[in-house]
Structure formats: C-alpha cells, structure tokens
C-alpha cells in the first residue's frame, strides 16, 4: 500500500478570530491540496482559538463557528481535513470534525476534560464518549483531542476499532518540562496500541499562555520519528507507511539551538510579540534602569518587535549610579531603540513637599523609597498614554513571589515578560543571549546586554549603596526555596529537611503568603514554569493557613 501523505498545520489560530482563522484554514487546505496531501490536520479548537473562555457562553459566537465549519466542509473536494471547533448541541463540546467530499463526515468530542493548571475545560464543555476512526486512502485513522492521549483508554478504544494511525490535535501550553513529558506519554501510547501517533500542537501566545508547537511523529514501536521546532509556524509534511506503521518527516524546519535557554527565550519573545500584535499596539515602552531585569526585557522586546517599535526611558534619581546610566544608554544605542532620559527628582520633590505636613513626626522608611518607584510609574504611564505604546513591567518571578516590588510603581505595566522567570534564570538567559549574539556575529566580545550589568550586584537603587541582598537571601538560595514551595508545593518542614536554613525558609514562605494581594494586581505575563502566578496558582489573599 502506498504511503499516506499528511500535512500538519502547526500554526497560530488566535482566540475569537473566527473569520481570520477560517481564512487561514482555507489557505492551508489549498496548499495541502497543491502538495498532494491526502489528509490535512489542524489544532484543537482551530476555529475559535484556544482557550476561548466565556466566548463559549455567547450563542452568536458558537453560531459563527458552526457556520465556518460548514463553509470549510464545502471546500474539501479532493482533500480530507481534521479541524477543531466548539460544537454546540444545546451543550458545548470540544470537537474535531472529519471533513471530506464537501461535507462534515464525522465529529468526535474530547473525552478527558482537563481542569488543572491553566485548564478550565469543565467550566465550558461536556465530555465526549468515544473517539472516532475514519478511512483515508485505505488507512484507518483514529483521531483524538489533546488530553485524550494522556490517558490510556481513548487511544485503546480507537485501536480496538481498527486504527493503524492515531492523529491527536492539541492546544498544549509550553513549560520547561513539557516536551519530555509529551514524548514519554506518546511513546507509551504507541507501544500500548501498536499504532503510530501524529501529535499536532498549536503555536502562539494567548494572554498568559504560550503554545510552542513542538509537534511530534511517533512510530508504532514508540520511537520518535521527528520533532518539529518550537515556536515556529509551519505546514509540516509527513508520510505514513502502513506496512510497518512508521512515519517519515519531509523537510521539516530546524532551529540552530534547542537548549533550554534558547527555547525559553523564544517562548518569551513569542509571548511579547503576540500580546502586542493581537491587541493592536504599535509598540512598547519600558523603564530602562541599568539593571539586569530591564536590560533583558529590552532585548526581548527588540527581538520580538524590532527596534523601531521599542522606546526605552531612563529615569534617574540621586541614587542612580554612573554604571546604571552608562549601561542603559549603551544598550539603547547598541540596539537602536528610541531612548530618553527623564529625571524624576523634581517630581519626587513635589510629591514630598505635598506630603511633608502629613509625614511630620515620622522617620524616613520604605515609604520614601516606594515613592521614587511610584513617581517613575506615574510618568511612564503618562508616556504610554500619550504615545500609544504599551508599557512593559520588568519585574521577575522571584520579586513577585516575595513582594519585592512596588504597587503602582515598578509593577506598573500592561504586560510583564519576566513575570514567570526566576532571577537566577534571568541571569542565565542574559548570558545565553550574549553568547548567541557573539556566535551570530563571529565577534567574541559582542553583546546585547551590557556585561557590566550582568556582573554587578542587583540593586533597586532607592538609597545609597543598596543591594537586593540587604532585604533578601542570595538569589540562588531564594529561588531554590521558592521553586520547592511554589512549583513543588513542598511544606516548610520538607524544605528545611532538604538542608535549607529554618529561619530563612520561614521568612521566605511568610513573604510569599502575605504578598498575594500584590500579585492579584500584577500585569499578565507569559507562563513558562509548571506553576505560574495568576490563573494557574490561585491562593486566597485572606487565609489563616501559614
């Protein structure tokens, strides 16, 4: 029997963009037909985008998705397609439609509805009862939806129904541990069922979630036949040989660096680009302090949008060091962004003059330090409003965890690229970006982030000779404790038993718990760990549990 030619649409299908998504499906179907594909496959909820959230409660939205499916079905002469969409039958199902011969031949519904982490499927969907098997050019193809492949029963059912090849359409968000977990699960399903597996995943940023693509071909013996690159939009061609149930990628794109740092950096870049572009902003603005967080944020923004769409503003105060001034200017000039220096001293003094009568009898404390940050926040927001450029917040996950951030100050912004990136990871990413730049240009001393900024002790520069470690444990120690408490949900006793100082653990955990109210007011940012603040980690602000 001849090989079955497949085209896999690893593309971004934005939430709510029903007309645009339908047009993209039509375009890709045309390309698949021209390339002699027998079957073209699209991701989970292609038509609505994923996750559509409460758009699914609007009858007009569901009707538009249904109309789109009928339109696409009419265009399938000479081609078979599997397309994800929300299927309304009084109740709503996460569905995959099998389109052929100008009509919808079959519809299957997602059976396993995830309701953990960023997933909230049970709020919107009813579970399906079974997968489906269809014949394409003599090959029996079973098709499932995302979470269904993570459990043994749905795959076993389509195999029992005669499937030789299982196609799984997905909207699976990226995190640092996800790809290995996917490969292990898919290999297990293939070996259990004796079926080859095609795993097609969505790509793109959606609010706080980034989808990486990273689609996979898995042979029936569980071996990985091909890995698609992460964060790359592509129509992926593959052949399935039914005689030995193997899959063969045809000229899949590659990326030069697949390290953890390279993939994480690509995730952050994609998150920024899609958030800005999908929300219709012409560009971004950020406060460039001369510190490592804002320096990395600037590099990410330029890589995501280009220098013409990025404005950086240095806002010095009497405590701002010469190193900060030189580092910020040097980086802005090297990256070619619009750059301004706007001193805050006169504005800060005006605030202090107004407040002094009510501050009498009180000693200076963090109030005055926070007022510097809030002065910057007010001015940056004014510039954002006036110039129509979205303000990026530059804080990292370590700071957000322990509340080392100022509400209405450095927390100002509409998007926070480093919100889910620990400080130690900020350093690794910054060094990686410089190494990548030097490798690209062939100049060993080339850089994107000033080396002096990377090597200096971190400081908010809100008073003389201040460093972060005046208030916090060293970041290596802090981040290790935070990862155990946040990602691993370990108790304080377990963390202490692992060898961490008891007083430090109690102090760090207390800071995490009492600063939940700040995190509720933080800007969204891309989720890149297994336990991000926001929609994934939802702790009560008011709680007696310590």
Automatic annotation (TrEMBL):
PROSITE patterns: CN_HYDROLASE. Deamido-NAD(+) binds at residues 370, 399, 518. The keyword Secreted does not apply. InterPro entries: C-N_Hydrolase, C-N_Hydrolase_sf, Gln-dep_NAD_synthase, NAD/GMP_synthase, NAD_synthase, Rossmann-like_a/b/a_fold. Residues 4-242 form the CN hydrolase domain. One of its GO terms (molecular function) is NAD+ synthase (glutamine-hydrolyzing) activity. The keyword Ligase applies. It catalyses: deamido-NAD(+) + L-glutamine + ATP + H2O = L-glutamate + AMP + diphosphate + NAD(+) + H(+). L-glutamine binds at residues 116, 172, 178. Catalyzes the ATP-dependent amidation of deamido-NAD to form NAD. Uses L-glutamine as a nitrogen source. HAMAP family: NadE_glutamine_dep (MF_02090). This is Glutamine-dependent NAD(+) synthetase. It comes from Dyella caseinilytica.
